[in-house]
Amino acid sequence: MYDSKQWPNVPHFTGTSLMTEYIETYVCPTIVSTDFTRVKQFRFKDDKRPIIAFIIAENEYHANRTLPEFAHELLLTKGVNCEFALGKPVYEGEGIHNIENLQILKDADLMVIQVGRRALPSEQMNLIKEYANSGKPILGLRTASHAFNANQVVPNTGGGVTDATGSVSGFLDQWPEFDQDVLGGNYKGHYGTMEVGIVFSVVPGMENHPIFKGVSPVDFIAPVAPLHTLYENRPLRSANIQVLLLGTIPDKPAEPVLWINNREKGKVIYTSLGHWNDWKIEKFKRIMFNAVDFLLDINNK
């Protein structure tokens, strides 16, 4: 029913996505066809938009609000289709170790992930691992460095089958190596809350990298806010990393806060930014838009 000649002047398939987004925001949740058919998710054959799968499950930084807002802007401006796999935005309680809709990764062209300390049933973790090993790109934000490290064993109360023999594991799956093996990071915690903002600086020589297209190379400062801390990641653990942005606080060494990990199995961009206040910084938002362009190679298509 959408006329692409009318506002917001987007293609027909994007208009359909916007109507779905409105229904999910203001009317009711939706489910995908796979939940009924148990076969590959239905898609219109002429809908050729790249698919971005947003994987969100954390309780501190309001990713359940900031990333859908980011996705909405991508939907309007980048000719992409954005889909979501969501976990509960809390740290404790029943059902936190579960992320619904991860089957969207089977069709995804880019995974954007902000998950914090979750264990998962093996069938869900396998979908994450299959995507990570597919060679397709990944954009990780903040808590992605400890996405699948729950810091404790988590009982499998659902009784999920974990191998071909039909045996059932007593615990949910974790993947603490995701930080090193996929992101190339070395997360060891953070320096604690600060009374001054973190200063972010472009690594000298990286000013003309596509990630900083339209971004002034002048330092910018994250405003002081609850939970806004500088992550400790030195030294990084991949030989194929290109650090682009550093974060500095008084009396501490500069920490890498944005880098590209050029894996054999595809490009990964990780940033330890992703606090809700970071999304209020125009430079950070522009860098994130550029990251999507870079990973999807949009400017060269």
Q: Would you give an account of this structure?
A:
- It is a single chain.
- The protein is of the alpha/beta class.
- The protein has a domain at 31-186 and 259-300: 3-Layer(aba) Sandwich (Rossmann fold).
- The protein has six helices and nine strands; from the N terminus they run H-H-E-H-E-E-H-E-H-E-E-E-E-E-H.
- The longest helix is centred in the N-terminal third of the chain and has 15 residues, at 12-26.
- It is globular, with a radius of gyration of 19 Å.
- The protein starts with 11 loop residues before the first helix and ends in a 5-residue tail after the last helix.
Helix and strand arrangement:
Layout lengths: L11 H15 L7 H4 L13 E7 L5 H15 L3 E6 L23 E6 L6 H11 L5 E4 L36 H6 L15 E4 L17 E2 L19 E8 L6 E9 L2 E6 L10 H15 L5
Parallel strand pairs: 1-2, 1-3, 3-4, 4-9
Antiparallel strand pairs: 5-6, 5-7, 7-8, 8-9
